[in-house]
Sequence to fold (78 residues):
Amino acid sequence: MPLILIDLKACNGCGVCVYVCPTMVLELRDGKARAANLEVCLGVRAKQLCAECIKTKEVCEGCVACVKNCPNAAISLV
Fold:
């Protein structure tokens, strides 16, 4: 089950990840990459894992297009 980890401090809101994602898991909101579906958020503040961690078991295919194309290395998959 892939988890998308977004470092919101490193994200500059360029939108490349949103554009290259074949399953539309991400969107730009408030100038940053975020989960397109807020219901899939794991509640990172409680777990203190990172800026935003997205559980995408049903949608994300783990293709890593977002990771490979992010110019600021703000996205990783776990």
Q: What stands out?
A: Residues 3-77 form a domain with the Alpha-Beta Plaits fold (CATH 3.30.70.20). Helices lie at 16-20, 44-47, 65-69. The chain has three helices and five strands. The chain has a mean pLDDT of 77.
